[in-house]
Write a structure and sequence with these properties.
Elements lengths: L19 E5 L5 H13 L15 E5 L10 H4 L1 E5 L6 E5 H7 L2 H9 L6 H7 L2 E3 L13 E2 L2 H4 L1
Parallel strand pairs: 1-2, 1-6, 2-5
Antiparallel strand pairs: 3-4
Helix pairs in contact: 1-4
Length: about 150
């Protein structure tokens, strides 16, 4: 009997094969797209997934200004931050943030779905979000993502 088949393989930095993936956010729902991007960043779609290792792929999201929200969230959703001073809580509506900095919408949604530790910070660096069709990562030859394989 072959005992090699009983060995559990644990990925590490040297054995992980990272790819570049291109995701088009045109007419995609924000939460559903963000969860798929978080799964790809984490590496949970790979058979050699290891929870404590960065084994995910690098993700490029384009056309982030064309993201959709369901229901009345376009009018009711606010992004809240605090300046650090007393009474410094600020609320920015979704529509204003989408007009000023559309990349921040997807970045905030994906960051909330990643682990809140050093690994999460390392994984977040693999996310690249751009407004419009253009991105500076053509040299990495990003491939399209197949959403049906990840769900």
């Amino acid at each position: 009997m072959d005992t090699i088949s009983y060995k559990t393989i644990s990925a590490n930095k040297a054995t992980v094969k990272k790819r570049w993936v291109l995701v088009d956010a045109t007419d995609q729902v924000l939460g559903r797209l963000s969860s798929i991007v978080a799964i790809i960043l984490r590496g949970k779609h790979k058979p050699d997934y290891t929870p404590h290792v960065d084994c995910g792929d690098n993700v490029i999201v384009i056309n982030c200004e064309k993201i959709k929200l369901t229901g009345n969230k376009r009018d009711q959703k606010y992004y809240i931050h605090h300046t650090g001073y007393p009474g410094g809580q600020r609320k920015v509506p979704f529509t204003r943030l989408q007009g000023k900095k559309p990349e921040a919408i997807i970045e905030k949604a994906v960051k909330g779905m990643l682990p809140k530790n050093r690994l999460g910070s390392e994984l977040f660096r693999n996310l690249h979000v751009y407004a419009g069709n253009e991105h500076p990562h053509e040299a990495q030859k990003p491939g399209p993502v197949n959403f049906s394989l990840i769900k």
